[in-house]
Specification:
This protein is of the alpha/beta class. It has a domain of 105 residues: 3-Layer(aba) Sandwich (Rossmann fold). 26% of the residues lie in helices and 41% in strands.
């Protein structure tokens, strides 16, 4: 029995061992240029943040720089953060006024027997106040792109009161995608080798 147990243990030692990744192993995604596939996580901020997340996904997808995925395990990096979209009323009070006062007077006395007084005056006043209320729409998002190790590769904060042809949330999503596109192109230009000087004629 003991020989059989030893034989089984010896045979098991000859089987190829499954290698497990070290807990300290780092991701090979170290910059924005290494990212190919992005998962946009749920943003903190409630129902409005959920709607803004969908707009961010659409805006990032329109840049054609990355593949947007709903499978977080397949993503090279995760976009996470907080967002909000709110409507509020702003109150304005203005006051316009014009006023004037003009007066003249003359008083004279001679000894103690004659006393004379001349006085006149006029006033003018025109005051007007205005009270108005304006309904406004404001959205903001603060997001960061992290690799699987949790290292932040990129971040931005954008806010908007709305644009000419789109609402505040759509404008924030477009700003995030535009900023990421600019930073991606800037990083790519930085890493491109300089062209060799042209030969002299």
């Amino acid at each position: 029995m003991r020989c059989l147990l030893c034989a089984l243990l010896f045979a098991a030692s000859l089987l190829p061992q499954e290698t497990k990744p070290s807990s300290g192993a780092s991701s090979n995604v170290e910059s924005l240029l290494d990212v190919r596939r992005i998962y946009v996580g749920q943003l903190a901020g409630g129902a409005q943040a959920t709607a803004l997340r969908e707009l961010i996904i659409a805006s990032l997808d329109s840049t054609k720089l990355f593949i947007l995925t709903d499978n977080e395990t397949r993503a090279d990096a995760v976009l996470k953060g907080a967002a909000d979209d709110k409507t509020f009323t702003e109150t304005f009070d203005t006051y316009e006024g014009m006023s004037g006062h003009d007066a003249v007077g003359k008083t004279g006395s001679a000894l103690t027997t004659k006393v004379g007084t001349l006085a006149g005056g006029s006033t003018l006043s025109d005051n007007e106040s205005h009270h108005s209320r304006e309904r406004k729409h404001e959205a903001y998002a603060s997001v960061r792109l992290c690799n699987k190790d949790g290292d932040v590769l990129w971040s931005t904060t954008q806010e908007s009161l709305g644009a000419k042809f789109r609402g505040a949330s759509a404008d924030v999503a477009a700003k995030i995608a535009h900023q990421m596109q600019l930073d991606y192109q800037r990083a790519r230009r930085t890493e491109e080798p300089e062209a060799p000087p042209a030969p002299k004629q």
